[in-house]
Amino acid sequence: MKRTNTLKKWTLVAISVVVFGIVSTNAYSQESAPCPFADDAVIFYGSPHLFGEACGAAARKCDFSDEIKALETLADKADGKIQSALNEEKAPRKQLDYLIDLCKKEVAEESTSRALVKSYVKYVDYVVLAAELPESVENVNAEFPNWLSLTLIFNTNPGGLDPRNYFDKKDVEIIREDNDALIGKLLIKDRGEVKAQVFFGGAKIKDVDKYAIVASASLEKVEKKISRFQQSNEFVVKNLADGVLAKRILKRAAFEQIVKAIDESKNDDARVRAARDVLCKIQSFTQIATNDDSAVVYNFVVETSDGETAQTLNDLAAGGLAAVKLAGKNKADKKAEEELGLELLNKIAITHDGTTVKAQVPVDFEWIKKVTTLAREKHDAK
Q: HSE on the CB side for 368, CA within 13 Å?
């Protein structure tokens, strides 16, 4: 594989101000391990690659030529702003020049913004931002960076991109480097002053041509996730097979922190206390977006601790939806955006099964086309 192929994918890393290291081509053969994100209470992820495929499917179903022209204009403006920021040294010039050049060569594109986007969509299967919440918090500002991890999953080997190529060697420390993985530390500086340190790691995912790169202020989190990716490919294989464009997950630990914050506020408002009681019984919340070639389908799932709570949430959701739909239907002289909103509301389906409440919203490409057309017309009318 060409060196430039692997390097250009790091555009996203540069934008995120996180740069990672060499990735091995050798799988680590071990028994199955927990999901790399099993310990995280908050998990947000999306697939640039699948999103690109969804956009292609939408373009085949509807005429988005006007929207594409608008994006081309936006890209031209973005090129100018990026170059201006580089010229004024508002960004790390050395690193970005290096990565931008690699991206341009990789996708044969002279436009900076287009090269970055094309590289991102082509090579990044998933980007995952996750937070492992502690049981107790003493100083949020100080502790918050250590909760977070950023993971990128590539569909080709990014092993040619070594931060030692475009960062000062004194700013990059390699902690471990072998045939299985690389673990290191990168110092983030501003005018010579160290502002942060980021631990990074990379490894080939078990038994598939996918590669995981993990960054965090916590070395422990990097090492743990890298190890789990080396032992199991279930996370990436299952999500790609299910066509998951994006997923947002809040586990029980996240709701416990919210409840704790309410208790500490000592708010005695009856509505707040009622909300607190419901939050005490929510085990998880998940929002999933998938593409079925004619629509982006959103599913919202709430898991509760008992059937009574689930029934209450179902009744509240169904009743609220019915009230909003009735109000919208009975309103005279509705605006175009209100008509579109009502059209979407009529597609929502809410179901209840045991301790689970689900809502599904299919957002078809025809509806998206109507929204973009309306937005463009309003913009042109200004």
A: 19
pLDDT digits (tens, 9 = 90+) for 317-335: 999 999 999 999 999 989 9
pLDDT tens-place string over residues 234-261: 999 999 999 999 999 999 999 999 999 8
CA 361 – CA 172 distance, rounded (Å)? 46
DSSP string covering 187-225: EEEETTEEEEEEEEEEEEPTTSS-EEEEEES-HHHHHHH
Structure tokens given for 286: 């998940």
Residue type, 80: G
Residue 381: Cβ within 10 Å count: 6
Per residue in 10-54, pLDDT (tens digit) is: 333 333 333 333 333 333 334 557 899 999 999 999 999 999 999
**Cβ within 8 Å of residue 280, ≥6 positions away:** 255, 259
Which residues, in sequence order, are CB contacts of 68 under 8 Å at separation 6+?
59
HEC string for 243-276: CEEEEEEEEHHHHHHHHHHHHHHCCCCHHHHHHH
CA 135 to chain centre: 25
